[in-house]
């Protein structure tokens, strides 16, 4: 019988820790959590809401907004405050997706550092997932979730966004009129 070791690694995006799980052929698992020294992650060096907002992009966004007769409901200051809040969280960060004023709807993502829909001036709406999968209590018990609706709604309201909550999704409106496209029913 061989004792083949398989290493699976998950690197925390913030660069602060790694979790390594080692499994061998007998099904035993060993986890090691190691906290890394800060690798120099500086929030001011990360892209903000206005990133990638050059003249060509600005004109494309303005043309789409004008053609659809949209009115801005947000600004880069608000988006930056939201982005920075979620970047500073330790552990769980909510999933998100967005729709551009040009019609593109992104897939759900959880990476809050570089995968965001820059520039945010193009964001018609921005959805935030409000549920976190709770740690498993075993194979025989049904999976559970942790509801973050109250805390995320409070932050979004404090920033001053126009938003709605349905089911386990919070939608922030980047432009008005509100579009309920692909939003959970009431």
Q: What do these coordinates show?
A:
The chain has 186 residues and is an alpha+beta fold. It has three helices and eleven strands. 19% of the residues are buried.
Task: Provide the residue-averaged pLDDT.
Answer: 81
How many strand segments? 11
Structural class of the helices, strands and pairings? Answer: alpha+beta
Helical percentage: 10-25%
Tally of separate helices: 3
* SSE string, helices as H and strands as E: EEEHEHEEEEHEEE
The assembly state of the depicted protein chains is single chain
- Which runs of at least 5 residues are low in confidence (pLDDT < 50)? 1-39
Roughly how many Å apart are the termini?
57 Å
Sequence of strands across the biggest β-sheet: 5-6-10-9
CA radius of gyration is 20 Å
